[in-house]
Amino acid sequence: MNWPDFVLATIFVPLIAFIVSTWVPGIMRKIQARIQQRIGPPVLMPGFWAVLKFMYKERIKPVSPLPRLFHSIPLIGIVLMFFIILLTNPEWDGVLGLTTLVALAGLIKVEETLYIVMGNLSDNIMSVRMPYPDLVSGSVMKAKVRRNFEKISVTRAFKLITVGSFPLYLGLFVPAVVAGSIGIMSIAKYQGFEIADFTLRGMYEMNPLILTVPGFIGAIAYFAGYLVILNEYPFSIMHTKADVIEGPTMEYASVSRAGYYLMREITMFVMSSVFVTLYFGIPPTLNLAMVPHIILAMILPVLAAIASAFSPVLTFRQVYPLSLGFSALGVIGVIVAIL
Amino acid sequence: MREMFVFMIKGAYDNISRILFATGRKTSIPMRNKILSGQVTYPQVVNDDSCIGCGACANICPVDAITMVDMEEPVRITEEYVKERRPVFDPMKCMYCFQCHDSCPIFAFYGKPSAIHPRHVGDSKVNLKELLQRPIVIKDKKEFEEVMNLLDEKAKKLLEGGI
Amino acid sequence: MMLKETSRKNAVHIMLVYTGGCNGCDIEVVNAVLSPFYDLEQYKVMLTWNPREADILAVTGPVTKKIAPALKEIYDAIPEPKLVAAIGACATVGGPYANLGGDLGSSDQIIGGVEKVIPVDAKLPGCPPRPEDILQVVASVIPLLAEKR
Amino acid sequence: MADTDRKDRAEYEVPLGIVHSALLEPFRTRLFVDDETVVDAEITYDSAHRGIERIMEGMPVQKGLIITERICGICSHIHLWNGTRMVEQGLGIEVPQRAHHIRVIGNELERIHSHLLFLGHAFEILGHETFSMRCFMLREPVQNILFFLSGNRVHYTISVIGGIRPRADIDKEKRRTLLGMLNSLEEGCKNFANRALKDSLIVSRIKEIGYLSKDDAVKYGALGPNLRASGVCEDVRTRVSEYSNFDFDIIVYDGGAVLDRVACRVFEVLESIKIIRQALETLPDEEPMNVDFEIGEMGFSTSYNEAARGEIYDSCALDESGRIKNYINRTPSMSSISAMEVSCIGDHLTDASLIIASCDPCLTCTNRITVVDENKGREYVLGPDEIRSMTRRRRI
Ligand code: SF4
Ligand code: SF4
Ligand code: SF4
Ligand code: SF4
Ligand code: SF4
Ligand code: SF4
Ligand code: SF4
Ligand code: SF4
User: What's this model's pTM, rounded to 2 decimal places?
Assistant: First the structure.
């Protein structure tokens, strides 16, 4: 291992990811706005200025049984994402034997469960706490418990994660099968990536996985999983704006809201970056490869923006069959890869 | 099937050009410019040039949003008519029912753009002098008789000549 | 600090609360947000339904007695700096429901203008105001937001 | 809404509102849920109560009628029209045919913009922002037409006792412009209907949920498109003399699901355009207003009409000096609430707000039954059973 490179990469790769990711929501919003035939917000607004603005807002104690834990969840999410991007980094190859898809999947799983914790810790004002005297009036039915919608979000997030993230894991799995290894770097190398002599010209000679049949199928499955883990439309079942249930993130205010925004942005970018590493064979690293990496990493958010502009929020009635379908696709991908 | 395919290709083409070149944008650019330069203001409500100061609008307003104030310098519009008051409109009280607009004689009698409109009075200029001296034409015989009954003897004599 | 003001001017979240008006103002506000013809987002203003996220609270309608506590609670939930825009005749003074009664007295079911419940920073008359008026008033209060502490 | 045997099955309750993104308007929804299935729903809608009927008490009728329009910003024209119509009928005031035509045009334009607003709202709840915006874009020209016609986008104040306000009269030039605007509106609506109702994702989301059977629709007092989407062919316009000159179809769907309610409204828009076109083409050439009447004592008079959401009813009496006594206004949403509650039952929690939205809730007009018990010093709202018994459908 090359220590200076290692340290530099450990500091700068996440930093670059961090900076780039502040553009992602703005780009997505702009694309949607263009589809909707309007001007839309400036590109930096939703991801960068909004975050900064929240930093300068008054700090409020959230209504939550464990405010400290509640506040620190976004931070945990961000740290997790930093680790994920480091694991896909060539300089980290072989560190503690962690740079495998298994470790990656584990971290993603933790990220998913954060939403569940969030929901359980929040109690926003739009529901039970709304000052409204309706207990005296009444339906014939008296329910035992009054629940706010975060709690239901939690149940749904749980279900969504169990069924909905299959495609993602299958999408992670396909490259491993094709490359015959679960080491992230060996997958990249299988596609022709060489950290030492990476040139833009050299990119033409690589054989990215996405151009093969199993790779393509796997990429589709991965994309579906990407939408699920981001809770992006159409899979935003646990926190849609206009659904009965608004998400568990409603109590985040000021700095922690900024944290939540950042966590979302960086998840968008990092999950897409993982995709580029696995399917294009170009990992994020501190040389020329970073440029095509970042450009390619915009593909998934752009596709996500287009997909969400043209689909309604799906409920479990559609999510089950759809995610089954995508999982089946993933399985097909795996089978094709084995053949 | 083929139709569906053509439809999809066309839709894809439309949307890609929307994304890349912002074609088919519906947002109003003139309005954007106006708003960014802070030019959208409450429209002028009373067109003082065409108002004759009769007070009908203040009378009819159901929420007393219009008050008539005495003018410092009364305006002589015609030989016989001097405008002494003008209406002042309070946007905060108004409920935009347009009673004032509909009952303003400039609109109701002469069919010209009303001197008062809580939204857009525009810049309709009316030559009041001409307008007020224009003879009012009463076509209906019955109506004419009604008007005659309202007038006093002296005025009746003047109008005796018929319509 | 410069960064603070710039960030506040460049990203604004607006929340709507309908306090029992006739829907007219509500729809015009929604129109200003959702209709691509008006497109509120181009002025760096995003719609939100969450008081924790909001900077500007747009209130429409005369505050009815039933909804006043909720309005107050929502206002309290917004972190500083925050602004309130009263949109429409109802929100400014109670509108036709308070005025039209005239000698008969206004409705005793409403509290009246929004200022009677929470402090108001901008008022927009009209029944209802046109969407462009709404856009203008929102655009014109944004600098106030930046000036706040 | 619950039968007694369902009583124990509610596991928990999810209260929403009175301010919530899914509701838009200030009303409280309580969903009683059993393992994510809604077993009962309760909609409480007293937060917009402004006591309008009370304000009107004792006002001179011309002045009082202005505020009927302020009952609601969606049904604004029909309230004023129905109010004036009621007074005209009660006092036997003659109204020129031209005024009738223009009032009908106003009402149909209102129906179009209301239905498009419904679609916009429904798509917003579906999470389909793009289509929601397309609906609002379609609606914009309608608002422009109304502005062009009357000078206000929401409260047009067209009708007045005896006819229409001269401001809203349609001269030759306006007529030509209107016809042109209608053509492009029709094309836009057709294209959009084609696109939206063929989108398989959208259809999969709205079909087979929110089922309201024909019997329930009648029993719980659904009105207008909600009733027609459940297979009942009923439209007050067929009995309103002003409409007798026009030829239009009543759109009826049998499904009773959200899809049917959406489709019903989409196609009603096209029918409305048809009516407006006929009314414009046969516009009689005469004075639009009759001023030859006197307002005096009037016995109890009533009037029914079809608003965008169904039957609307107004009644009042006048005293000797023409002041209002006992104004009563019953709006369509008032009656449809119970049906909204029923149609949620048995569906998944996620769909509940969509289902409620698909019945087009708009409750600003609806709040009236807050009972103040002075002896006990408390205020409460009548329960659904009482409300239901008050809103039970009048069979005609
Ligand atoms: S003309 Fe009409 S408005 Fe004018 S003073 Fe006479 S009654 Fe009043
Ligand atoms: S529009 Fe306003 S000023 Fe005019 S009569 Fe009505 S309330 Fe009064
Ligand atoms: S009614 Fe018309 S002319 Fe008379 S005071 Fe009012 S605005 Fe002036
Ligand atoms: S100001 Fe007018 S349009 Fe707005 S809510 Fe009040 S009555 Fe309705
Ligand atoms: S029922 Fe409707 S119109 Fe009557 S007072 Fe209540 S809100 Fe006003
Ligand atoms: S319920 Fe009571 S307060 Fe409400 S409109 Fe009727 S009489 Fe007035
Ligand atoms: S039903 Fe009531 S709230 Fe709905 S549009 Fe009609 S009048 Fe307005
Ligand atoms: S229930 Fe019947 S009798 Fe009683 S007020 Fe209503 S319509 Fe009249």
Answer: 0.88
